[in-house]
Amino acid sequence: MIIPSADRLQQVQEYYFSRKLAEVRALNAQGRNIINLGIGDPDMDPSEETVQALVNTSQTAGVHGYQPYNSIAPLRQAIARWYQQTYAVELDPEKEILPLMGSKEGIFHVSMAFLNPGDKVLVPNPGYPAYAATAKLVGAVPVAYTLKEENGWLPDPQELQELLAEGGVKLMWVNYPHMPTGAEATAEALQNLVQLALEHQFLLANDNPYSLVLPHGKPLSLLSLPQASECCLEFNSLSKSHNMAGWRVGMVLGRQDYLQNVLRVKSNLDSGMFQPVQHAAIKALSNPESWHQARNAVYAQRRQKVYELLELLGCSFQKNAVGMFVWARVPQTVTDVEAFLDEILYEAGVFLTPGKIFGTQGERYLRVSLCLPENKIEEATNRISTHLTSAKPELSL
Length: 397
Fold this sequence. Notes:
Pfam families: Aminotran_1_2 (PF00155)
CATH topology of the largest domain: Aspartate Aminotransferase, domain 2
Keywords: Aminotransferase, Transferase
Protein name: Aminotransferase
Radius of gyration: 21 Å
Number of domains: 2
Order of helices and strands: HEHHEHEHEHEHEHEEHHHEEHEEEH
Family: Belongs to the class-I pyridoxal-phosphate-dependent aminotransferase family.
Number of helices: 13
Number of strands: 13
Structural class: alpha/beta
Largest sheet: 7 strands, mixed
EC number: 2.6.1.-
CATH architecture of the largest domain: 3-Layer(aba) Sandwich
């Protein structure tokens, strides 16, 4: 007997990296030693003080039980201080901050809290696949809006007006600094989106985990803009900015009644974040600027090595992107980008991410992670060079 799956699962596929990393593990089990430049999993450690806070608190009596669904007050207070210092945004820690066990879960919580079947959700193309997937899981309808390289990977105001004129939009996802392209949004561009949200009465949500990784200037929060508090939520995370991806510490920020709706979902799905992790997060949020500068200096050196790899492949790319990836256009001599990257995976032993997984606007692109040491990136470049030299002409550049 086979119990059929829920109909909603027909609307989504297994997350690409879940499938592809299983493929990579299988190759490694065969002794292939794959170099993984596909995923943004920080390989550097959190600050020593962060780890020590986890250890010390774990050895304290009374910290191993259930925790408040909205976290302990000191964590919310630490997030408020961090947002004021980093983004010049004043938040009430009792009303406008809800810690999460990773911001990815919050994307689903917001979808559950605000979307009804048939509601439309504007999602970026290219963009993080979870925005569309969570919409489908709750019966909503994802509607892609187009981001183009020639427009700086910013939304086209005319296209948005046309999509909104059709009606039914309840939520719009934005993600700046943008993943996968690394593009930054100007305050003016985001302010225009705030005005659209007010005019058309939809919730505008910005996913903002990359703003401290190789930034150009002071990081920008959507919530710093006039009237944003009326119609906007912002997500953030310690995964990328504090090297804590596996710790699962995120947050959603915004007006109290919106967060209460999210909490109604969250409180039915978890039983609070482990208290020692919360204390470690408090310590991480007080990392000095010098710690962030040191991390970014490492990423900057690695990025130069990735540029060399991409030049070997004949790719074109922008050198002013934010975040821990380099997004690059593949030359026209490559007819099938995904097939070519699979060739590199199986023949050269290097995993690079095809841009098509982020939407149709990514079909001619690839993404390379900065989350490996320089010597590994150099080795990947040497492997690819050897493969391209020996490959049949019709398979190589």
